[in-house]
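Here is one chain, start to finish.
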Amino acid sequence: MIPRSLLLGPVIGISMSLSAQYNDPESVEHDPIGDRYFVSNLGDGTIKKRDQAGNVTPFASASPDPYGLEILGDTLYACSGGRVKGYLLSDGSQVFDLNTGGGFLNGITTDGHFLYVTDFSGQQIFRVEPSTSSFTTWVAGTGGTPNGIVYEPMSDALLVAYWGAGAIVRGYDRATAAITGTVSTGVGSIDGITLECHGLVVISSWSPNRISRFEWGVVSPQFEDLMVPGLSQPADIDFDTVHDRICIPSGGNDQVILFDLADCATAVPGPSPSDAFTVSLTEDGRALRFQGLPLEATAYRLLDVTGRLLDAGRLQATVLLPAFTGAVLVQVDGIGVRRIMVP
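Its structure:
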């Protein structure tokens, strides 16, 4: 579990608002490789990109209007009506278009292989296989209106944020789609959901306009208002793992707010479901050293705290790290998870 001091400790946030460049922004997705932000706009059906210098330029257009955004591999995927569309990160050209038959696709996330997409009006969740351009109805009835969705690798679950009064966050087991937990949040109409540097869950709500965070998997989670200023209908959020900031589309005032979390430097490893193995950095900091596990026959995955896949393979005594800094989740199939900081 995350130490309670991290959940309740002081947060000194720096908020940068960007307006007059967006038209009803709905979703923000950070690209850690290109170190830029993609923003879907409902007012004009566009996806724009914003670099770290603040330059906003066109990237792609979608009809119907693009909602949730998610990067997987070399492609930016977007919810568009009942379809999932994909655009090459390199030039914005459309390379994917899958009709799910859903009524209103809204939120989207990935576990590093599949895409998971919420159908707001159909109250269902689809699982999309991009490599085969196929999909399945992963959850046929969500028992409410699903909006944002994020993969939570520590519990290997998909967390779904619900719209409406008395909004909840519900977990679904990635392997079986069985419900693993339901949390009453005390707010209404949650739009977006993401994970921050400690692995805590961050949600955006409209009633009230607020960004909150809490710990998933505890009996009575405590909710912290991050006191983000300037919010108006905050929508589909993301976490920038390079700069430790929450990326917030504020559709009611045509702004994108980048809110820095000053307490990310205090992120520490947490316990894992198993004590069977340890993971440490080699002396040069370029590889991971595994101990206490059968090698080669065991599969592993490396993810950032948002669930984005960094690397995968079969275990060896040491595994080279990809070019990455920050918190890395080391997931060993059938055994457990470790979190390690890469300087």
